[in-house]
Amino acid sequence: MQSNKARTPAAAVRTDPRRDRTRDALLRAGQRLFAERDVDGVSVDEIVDAAAVAKGSFYNHFADKGVFAREIAAGVRRDVEQLVNQANDGIDDPALDVSRALCVFIRFAMEHRDRARALWRLNTGATLADAPINRGLREVVQRGIERQVFRHVDVETGILLVMGNFVITLRHVFDTPVHAPPEQIARQMAAGLLRSLGVPATRAEKLGEKAAHDILG
């Protein structure tokens, strides 16, 4: 027999705005510092000084600096992956998918320089084909090989080619005075990446141009 008594709603989870602000301040400070130096080159004292919080506050939120760094990398990675997924919603061509993803990374690096640099420095283990961070990329490369869009490469080599292209392109955007328009750089690098994956040159140029125009134009 069921009771007619109404169930008591679950208590709402309460958050402490001050605690949230402290955590956000630490993460923002960490992004700025890790954009310029590796984890080992940044101390907890520097992080709390940059965030303008007490040192004890750091350990109220993070077990150690390694956990802190992984939290920053994961947060930036989630945001970039979301942007890539949005840009490639409805895109079925693996070659165009990869080209547009490169352009999204370039645009993100231009608009969020510190966050992109921090991700670049903190993204350890990204060259492993089976790493969780590469799950989406692995699926795209695998699909491209199965459809014979990508030729003369296996999945692991394809992943390495894509990541290598992304890294060197971002490094170029970060560390050199860029005289060519970003759209031109994206178009040329995307076309070069597709050619290395076995896409015919004419089609690679066309897809690189389309991706750069759609995302950066």
Throw out a few tags for this protein:
Tetracycline Repressor, domain 2, mainly alpha, Arc Repressor Mutant, subunit A, 217 residues, single chain, disordered N terminus, 2 domains
Please describe the topology of this protein.
Layout: H1 17-36, H2 44-51, H3 55-61, H4 65-87, H5 94-111, H6 113-122, H7 135-146, H8 155-175, H9 182-196, H10 201-216
Structure description:
The protein is mainly α and 217 residues long. It has 10 helices and no strands. The protein folds into 2 domains: 47 residues, Arc Repressor Mutant, subunit A; 148 residues, Orthogonal Bundle (Tetracycline Repressor, domain 2), CATH 1.10.357.10. Helix 4 packs across helix 5 and helix 5 packs across helix 6. The chain starts with 16 loop residues before the first helix and ends with a helix. The N terminus is likely disordered.
Gist?
The protein has 217 residues and is mainly α. It is 69% helix and 0% strand.
Give the end-to-end Cα distance, rounded to a whole number of Å. 66 Å
CATH architecture of the largest domain: Orthogonal Bundle
Q: Over all CA atoms, what is the radius of gyration?
A: 21 Å
The strand count comes to: 0
Average pLDDT value? 88
Helix vs. strand class? mainly alpha
Largest sheet properties? none
For the record, the count of structural domains works out to 2
Q: So, the CATH homologous superfamily of the largest domain?
A: Tetracycline Repressor, domain 2
Topology as a string of helices (H) and strands (E): HHHHHHHHHH
